[in-house]
Design goal:
The structure is a single chain. By secondary structure, this protein is an alpha/beta fold. Helices cover 33% and strands 18% of the residues. The longest helix is centred in the last third of the chain and has 16 residues. The radius of gyration is 17 Å and the shape is globular. The mean pLDDT is 89.
Amino acid sequence: DHIDLAVPAGSVYGFLGPNGSGKTTTIRMLLGLIHPTQGSFSVLGTSAEQGIDAALPRVGALAEGPAFYLFMTGRQNLARCDAADRTADLATSRARIDHALDQVGLLAAAEKRYRAYSLGMKQRLGIASGLLRPRDLMILDEPTNGLDPQGTREIRSLVKQIAANGTTVFVSSHLLAEVEQICSHVGVMSSGHLVFQGTMAQLRGRGERRI
């Protein structure tokens, strides 16, 4: 309801809020999966009215958890994702898949079937599917959801690496402690409203110390 998001280029933007506050719904709108009842938005300078399809090849996303074929290997699943992208160059598919797997630390497990992957590996493969091409923006919906501490650290390190490569990262979470460790900017949702937006330093400055 009247969300005014401003995500600076090159930032790691944490989209915070409890479950049910509207984070995933907002992300689905930004990806063109659902449409807002009113209002407007733009992704990478392309407005929804113009049609964000032109901008989507520059956007990688992991929304509501990865969905892959259990009986296929990690590499085979990424090949299916790449083949479904009408704007991808099939001649460079193998090299790009290897690069994406290497970025998320799954190159050694590329020939392992997806059903044998741990939850953390499944999340990383989902992120790899968004890295099959150079991206200006990565949108990650609750990427550490359900992970153990080691898996959470791996995803945290991966987000930092993606950002270091010059990609703007928009990551939703309900865990303030996680967002605090990786984000430069933050927006806080509550019951469908944006109740705070600014830098992490500004958010910390609003807190009170209580004993």
